[in-house]
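Sorry, I am new here, but would you mind making up a protein's amino acid sequence and the tokens describing how it folds?
***
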Amino acid sequence: MRRDATLAENILWQAIRNNQLGGLKFKRQAPLLGYIVDFACFRSRLIIELDGSQHSGSNSDVERDKCLNASSFKTLRFWNDEIIRNLDGVCSQILHEANKRRSGVHIPLSGDF
């Protein structure tokens, strides 16, 4: 787990913390299935990952997403600069996906809030 958040992580966290985004509760730097995810909404089984250029074409990210998807989690990935340039659009996309997932079947997870 990193100590210091990136600028993009701080910007997104300010927009989604304290149930500000459609009442969704997100955890930051959450441990999940042996990974540390940037942000997780356990009720919607939604993971948000913010990536810099070091993640371009990353095989480990593909494997990680497969593992998380196999446990009914959906990972949304955004580039850091997208958060900075289009925060409203990113938040709309997150909210849309969370609402789709909340309307489906929910399988409780230990530690689900």
